[in-house]
Design brief:
About 35% of the residues lie in helices and about 35% in strands. By secondary structure, it is an alpha+beta fold. It has one domain (about 35-165): Nuclear Transport Factor 2, Chain: A, CATH 3.10.450. It starts with a helix and ends in a 7-residue tail after the last strand.
Length: about 170
């Protein structure tokens, strides 16, 4: 009886060692895939997209801007509904850029690329001018853009911005 109990105990102790592991046996595999991500190159690629975005804003090309977004991307302007999907994003940008005197600049202050290389955060500031009734109005604010790598290309997943000006209370 003691021999059976001993064998049962040893079996119970060794059983976990026989289970299939979900992790690679060699952690070097994970390390090598993490090292394969060139976050500096990804950051530069995103900065290139930001430069292109600014060119498209200057050209007032809402369709071109919408193509920078993922198919399921979203733009979230202040005091307006969310624009989900490229058609709504194009309409949102078209409406904003159709405002008389529209001018927009923005610049990233920080771009953080995930260690997996599939997501990035772009945080920065913007300057806006409009002249809806002929008198120029200016605004400054901040934004956050979440980028997602889709098929090897960076696309905007979410874009939100808001003013530094105090709320008008209206």
């Amino acid at each position: 009886m003691r021999k059976s109990l001993f064998l049962l105990s040893v079996t119970a102790l060794l059983l976990p060692a026989c289970q299939v592991s979900e992790k690679p046996a060699d952690d070097a595999t994970e390390l090598n895939s993490a090292e394969a991500v060139d976050t500096r190159a990804d950051e530069q690629a995103i900065r290139g997209h930001v430069d292109r975005w600014l060119q498209l804003v200057t050209a007032k090309d809402a369709a071109g801007i919408a193509e920078l977004y993922a198919e399921d991307g979203a733009v979230m302007p202040p005091n307006a509904p969310i624009g989900k999907g490229r058609a709504a994003i194009q309409q949102t940008w078209s409406s904003m850029m159709g405002t008389p005197g529209f001018g927009l600049t923005f610049a990233p202050e920080q771009i953080l690329v995930s260690s997996s290389g599939d997501m990035a955060l772009d945080r920065g500031t913007y300057g806006l001018t409009i002249a809806p009734d002929g008198a120029t109005q200016t605004d400054t604010g901040k934004y956050v853009v979440v980028w997602r790598k889709i098929g090897g290309e960076w696309k905007v997943a979410a874009d939100i911005f808001n003013s530094d000006l105090p709320a008008s209370g209206g």
